[in-house]
Structures are given as structure tokens and as C-alpha cells.
Amino acid sequence: MTLEVRGLTIDIGDRRVVDGVSFDVPDGARVGLIGESGSGKSLTALAVLGLLPDGALASGSIRWDGRELIGLPDRELARLRGDDIGIVFQEPRTALNPIRTVGRQISESIRIHQDVSKRDAAARAVAEAARVALPDPERIVSRYPHQLSGGQRQRVAIAMALACRPKLLIADEPTTALDVTIQSEILDLLLSLVEDDGMSLVFITHDLAVLSQIATHGIVLEDGRVVEDAPVSQLLTKPRSPVTQGLLRDATATLWRPGGQP
């Protein structure tokens, strides 16, 4: 299945925050949306799922497997979320319900989209917790989000997003709030799960170093517009736009070095 975005614009009041964005995510592709804060990358991704904030108006075209999503009724969009398209947000502390166990939250995401019993969904929750490498999954599913570390909460969020085996995963800066070691573990986990399931991936980040670890193609945004659209290898070695050149300077100052040098 292919995601096709054509001429996407998003207006909030009298301000245009996304202006004519176009890109494709072919079946099985790993595409990154990268840019500084306020560039429009997260809003672009939220528009795909019909999750724009109140007052935001999207126009243009977003097609999933040939089906137009802009203007689709909320009930039909809800069927796509989690079933066809999963999403992992930046901060799991706010994405997870603090008064429900993580196992219940994983099992609920399954029961919403699949006709399974509570018992079977609970068993699936344990299996999904194990799949994302949570320690002692039988025990951890009985815990609440505040009882887990940041990295563990993000693994729960990933388990929820992937429990129904969506065809496309949108990951909205899922490692930004984590330290470098945990960040690397989450990136490795996401990459392995995407490859194992044959999913497509839209990965949102402001960090070219992070993008280089998980995506093969990058869409660079500035002020709601696409300023560069190229393979990640080209963004790393021959960036054309000043925005990408600035992102590369930031990357080489932190996690990534040309030629893999520390």
C-alpha cells in the first residue's frame, strides 16, 4: 500500500502552517520528515490520520492505497488508525492513560480493531510486550505507566501502535525525550519491527543523525514547505539546501560523523 500526499496545505486561522507539501511513501519504504521545530513536519503526519488540532483545516490530497483521506468521516478514519496506520508519539507519558495498566491499554488497542475476547486480548498483550523486549512481560503488563522508565513507556507505546500489524507506522520524534543509549535501543527496535512486518515507515525528527539510522529517504521541511527531497545518503554527503546543511552541521557535532568516525 502506498501513501501519496499531494499539495497538502494546513491553515490554522489566517496562518498557513503547511504549504503545498507533496511526497510518496511506497510500500515498504522508510521515509523521514525532518526539520526544525515549527517546520510543519508533525502537522503533516497528523493530517494523514485526521488528528489535526481544533481549528486546523487541511486541503490538497492525502491518498492511502488510492483512497482519499481528506474529508473522510471520523468513523472511517478511526477504522484506519491502528488497523492500517499506527502512530507512536514523542512523549509516551502523555500518550498513555495513567490510571490503566499498560497491559490493559495494549489489549484495548487490539479489541478496538479485532474481534477477540478479553482473555485472548490480555494474552496478546503479554506477547506484544515480549515482542518489544519489555523485561518480564507477564509482570510488567500489570504495571501502570508511572511505574515504568521512559524507555519502557515508549516500548509500550510501540506495542500498542503495532499490535494490529498496521501497514504503515508513523513515528513522531519517538526518541527525543530519551537519553542517547535508550534512544539507540528504541531506534534498533523500531527498525527490526518495521523490517520483520514489512511495514512502511514515516519517521519524524529534527535530527539528521537519527534519521540516518532508520530512514532511506528524507523530506526536509522549512516553514511548512519542502526544501529538499532526496535519499538520506545524499542529504548526508551532498545537501543542497541551507536548511539541510545546517541540520548536517548539527548532526556532525553530536551523534554522527562522516565516514563513521567518532
UniProtKB/TrEMBL annotation:
Protein topology in the membrane: Peripheral membrane protein
Pfam families: ABC_tran
Domain of life of the native organism: Bacteria
Location in the cell: Cell membrane
Keywords: ATP-binding, Cell membrane, Membrane, Nucleotide-binding, Transport
Ranges where the ABC transporter domain occurs: 3-248
Entry's family note: Belongs to the ABC transporter superfamily.
Name this protein carries in UniProt: ABC transporter domain-containing protein
Annotated organism of origin: Microbacterium awajiense
